[in-house]
Amino acid sequence: MTRTTETRSAPRRLDFDPDTVEHDLAALVLTVVELLRQLVERQALRRVEVGDLDEDQEERIGMTLMLLEDRMELLRERFGLTPEELNLDLGPLGPLLPTD
């Protein structure tokens, strides 16, 4: 009977470079905001489809979602992030955000 040996790698070192920390934190926060933005957008579209909103509400929601998308783009540019970088890979579950 052969015995397998376990190799342990050295613990990963944390990089405390302020630029990297800011970038990584911004990516995480913007990922959560983008996920919520997409969920709110889908819910708003469902409400429009079923006729649950009046014309003024539809207009306000549409403008708000467009402004939020614009702000997200500005923040991504500010931190040098692409939309693809905000889409976390969840392994067997696939990407966090839809890619449609």
Write the layout of secondary structure elements.
Blueprint lengths: L17 H32 L5 H24 L22
Helix pairs in contact: 1-2
Provide structural commentary.
The protein is mostly helical and 100 residues long. The protein is built from two helices and no strands. It has helices at 18-49, 55-78. Helix 1 (18-49) runs antiparallel to helix 2. The longest helix has 32 residues, at 18-49. The chain is flat, with a radius of gyration of 20 Å. Pfam families: GvpK (PF05121). This is Gas vesicle protein K.
Please supply descriptive tags for the structure shown above:
mainly alpha, 100 residues, disordered N terminus, 2 helices
Alpha-carbon distance between the termini? 52 Å
| Strand count | 0
Characterize the overall form: flat
What is the CA-atom radius of gyration, in angstroms? 20 Å
SS-derived structural category: mainly alpha
N-to-C SSE series? HH
Q: Give the overall pLDDT as a whole number.
A: 80
Q: In this structure, how is the largest beta sheet organized?
A: none
Q: How many helix segments?
A: 2
Tell me roughly what share of residues is in helical segments: 55-70%
How much of the residues is beta strand, in percent? under 5%
Low-confidence stretches: 1-14
